[in-house]
Design a protein that fits this description.
The structure holds 2 protein chains of 2 kinds. Chain A folds into 2 domains: about 15-130; about 140-250, Rossmann fold. Helices cover about 50% and strands about 15% of the residues of chain A. Chain A contains 12 helices and 8 strands. In chain A, α2 (about 30-40) crosses α12 (about 240-250), α5 runs antiparallel to α6 (about 110-115) and α7 (about 120-130) crosses α8 (about 155-165). The longest helix of chain A has 17 residues, at about 195-210. The model of chain A has no long low-confidence stretch (mean pLDDT about 95). Chain B folds into 2 domains: about 5-295, NagB/RpiA/CoA transferase-like (Rossmann fold), CATH 3.40.50; about 410-460, no CATH class. Chain B has helices at about 5-10, 15-40, 45-60, 60-75, 85-100, 110-115, 115-120, 135-140, 155-165, 175-195, 220-225, 245-260, 295, 310-315, 320-325, 335-345, 365-370, 375-390, 400-405, 410-420, 435-440, 450-460; strands spanning about 80, 105, 125-130, 195-200, 205, 210-215, 230-235, 240, 265-270, 285-290. A 6-stranded parallel beta sheet of chain B has the order 1-10-7-4-2-3, with helices on both faces. A 4-stranded mixed beta sheet of chain B has the order 8-5-6-9. In chain B, a hairpin with a 5-residue loop joins β5 (about 205) and β6 (about 210-215). The radius of gyration of chain B is 26 Å and the shape is elongated. The mean pLDDT of chain B is about 95. The chains are: A alpha/beta, B alpha/beta. Chains A and B meet through α1, α2, α3, α4 and α5 of A and α1, α15, α17, α18 and α19 of B.
Amino acid sequence: MMLNSGRIPVSGRRVQLMATCLCDAFHDDVAAATVQVLEHLGCDVAFPEGQTCCGQPAFNGGDWAASRRVVRHTVRTFSGSDPVVVPSGSCAAMLFHGAALEFEHEGDLGEVEGLGRRTWELCDFIVNGLGVSSWPGRFDSAVALHRSCHTRGTASGEAAATLLGSIAGVSLVEFGEAEQCCGFGGTFSVGFPNISAAMGDLKLDHVRAARPDVLVSGDTGCLMHLSGLAAREGIKVRTMHLAQVLRDALGRPA
Amino acid sequence: MRTQPIDQVAAGLAPETKAAVYEGSKIGHEKRTKLLFDHYGDPDRLRTLAGEIKQHVVENLDTYLPAVEASLVANGVRVHWAATAEAACEAVHSILKARGARKLVKAKTMVSEEIELEGYLKARGIEALETDLGEFIVQLDHDHPSHIIKPIIHKNRRQIAELFERNGLGAYDDEPGMITQRARQFLRHKYLEADAGLTGANFVVAESGRLVIVTNEGNSRFCLAATRCHIALVGIEKILPRDRDLALFLNLLARSGTAQQLTVYNEFILGPRAPGQPDGPEEMHVVFVDNGRTEVLATECRDILRCIRCGACLNVCPVYRQAGGHAYRSVYPGPVGAVLSPLLLGKRFPEKADLPKASSLCGACNEVCPVNIPIPDLLLRLRDKAHVEGVKSPGTPPMGAWAILATQPVAWKAALLGGRLLNHLPTGLIPIPALRAWESKRDLPPWRGGEFRKWLKMRRKQPGKGQSPPD
């Protein structure tokens, strides 16, 4: 069951980058890596300066009226017909699934759905949008891939595994209870800190048992939660965003 | 910022209880997944089909309810309609009173928990004894079920052996075989003494009036074998259109609920004992219970009425695994309960408006649901409902200020730069409650607001420079 079926096929190489609020505030290198990856693919990357956030915090927090205001701003900011690429399964799902839900009784549902149909998570865009399924360069690491929950019901999880698996030097390592959530969940992480942290600890235990060199995910939120927990608890776990792995691989001969 | 009630329960849960719930639900989930995917090439297609059939029933209840009544009546069953929990209890009581019945043996039914039947009957001098092993243990311990199909998932065998010893069912012995044998010995006599048997129903078929009950202990069969009156309590959403739908639903229910190909005992009941049949109850009643369901039908959360009570969403839910079922303060816990329980309260919705927030929205519940209920979407709808109705619950950061920033790019950019102050503040002094709550468990990465935009501008000025932003 694909949540994001009915998308507009990609034609041409002009894209708009949605950097995400977490990259805007904390993880600038993930956004930079996304630019470099897209440019490597020959994309002409536009960055609409007025962008802020996809609207998900208020959507998940239950304040749909506030969320709709932010989504409307996002729809205006990413106008036109070029695909919108976002280095986050979570923000992408907000735009192609969540926003449609909170706009179902609104007059501008059509515009919101229109943006959703041209919004792509980064790996999904590379593999299913551009049709690129192998990645050049080299990345000598055992990689644990955390498929963030917002990739359920989308093609992003498989796309990420396909790309990672194609990089010379990468070995993907499996870990236990991989289908379980890391415990981030946006506002959930602050309303339910005990459960959230317990979920994160389980994830860290499983990942560490598999002894990867690096824990990789396509969602900054999951990584921020897991690395923040590990740092607080004095656990050493190296985390990287998928975009950073793809970018770093490019610099090294295969 | 105060944390949510369920989070507080999880934090205070005894390690022994947490371990029992976690292991029980994890094993249940893993066995289910293996069985479904071993047997079916594309179980998602089955889930989708079952969801469509159940949604069709839910959206056409106005025709299916009279149809099922007609079929049941034609089979010699007496049909009762109960709009409320109270009315359902009264219906059961009046049937029992008319027969002068004092002792009732019960098979497992969540609806009887929902309408609090046991207490109602007890106050009127009627004993209602649970015969499902888990429910029997719950009853003996004056406890509540903490899982839809595994009511004692929160107990371990030591606790059960101690309970049996305290209640005179034999000296301490925590061998599961011995526990079962002792319960069985105790219950055998009760079946023979009982005046009536009460069950639920997993499905009622509209075209035939066939009542379907599945158990793994055969206790519902015992409840009906020796008694002369059978009462079935059935939620009005339990209808299936055709007998042939049972093939799909029985296969999905057993695999999703208990990771079995088929539940051990499947009873197909077509009415009371017919002339010439050697045994079975001579009188059969079906009490259809609404108790808030038609109100749910009127909402955009009506999909939740597809639920066939398999418990798969509880087993896979990371929040349920950490908090256990009692944390939900409801007969129906876990993801399905977080939707259904507040809705069934009708106007008293605010009492449980915090439940839909007890989810990271990970979507695992939807992925395992045999009738493909979009539980995360329904949880989100209820969060919005709570907000629109002005229900306050702790642990939800206010979003107004954020929405103002996120709709005004100039203010947003200023906040990105201003946020750097966070890097110089000790945790306790961070002026944003949500960030303080974050910091209660995790480090916050350094604030680097505006760095990406600066990097991009530099890069655009010097084409060909692919360097990373400065640290």
